[in-house]
Specification:
The protein is built from 4 helices and 11 strands; from the N terminus they run ααββββββααβββββ. An 11-stranded antiparallel beta sheet has the order 6-5-4-3-2-1-11-10-9-8-7.
Length: 205
């Protein structure tokens, strides 16, 4: 795997807000975990496409560690993600809709593409499954690729998909939905840890 700069890791994570929100499920999973309750949970989370979250994110690659604060707003295909803190330096903003994504980085300029994957390829020269993170952050696998899950009480505890290992360390119940509040994503020597401080939308406070 080509070394990923920390700025590049931000592109990898935060441009995941596009792509795949409305694709039909093509999930492959074992019969042992394919229960009716789990299927219903996936359907609920797939339909949960109007939300915002605030999170603290850390990136580790080798001996390099950095952190950021993130405000991510998703309204179906439209998104607006603002990045600040030590990692963000002067700040960064990622926004767009289906077929267009743009990232503005303070002091560096703007980058745009027609998809998250193309933006990552344009800025990093890498092909990475960035579109899947929009599912992973909600506690469900991407419907586009096979996966190996470990499920406990109808919640993902561990997920292996597209070469990534996603560990769900904590969930939080906001009264109507139970959503991830702490997770870790690992691929080779790259680790992304996310602590979600709050979830909100127009109907769930």
């Amino acid at each position: 795997m080509k070394a990923v700069t920390l700025r590049g890791v931000a592109v990898l994570l935060f441009t995941a807000a596009l792509a795949g929100c409305s694709v039909a499920p093509k999930v492959q999973m074992t019969d042992a975990v394919e229960t009716a309750v789990w299927k219903q949970h996936q359907q609920v989370m797939m339909a949960y496409d109007d939300w915002s979250l605030y999170a603290k994110v850390s990136f580790r690659q080798g001996n390099k560690i950095n952190t950021a604060q993130m405000n991510w707003t998703q309204k179906q295909q439209d998104y607006d993600i603002q990045l600040s803190g030590p990692f963000g330096q002067g700040g960064a903003r990622i926004y767009g809709t289906e077929g267009y994504v743009r990232i503005d980085i303070a002091g560096e300029g703007s980058y745009s593409a027609v998809s998250p994957e193309r933006l990552v390829y344009k800025t990093l020269g890498l092909t990475l499954p960035v579109s899947q993170i929009i599912y992973w952050v909600r506690g469900i696998p991407s419907p586009e690729e096979p996966y190996t899950p470990f499920i406990e009480q109808n919640q993902l505890k561990n997920l292996h998909q597209s070469g990534w290992q996603i560990e769900y360390l904590r969930y939080a119940d906001n009264g109507k939905l139970t959503l991830p509040s702490k997770l870790k994503l690992v691929n080779d020597d790259l680790q992304i840890a996310m602590v979600i401080k709050s979830w909100s939308d127009q109907t769930i406070d």
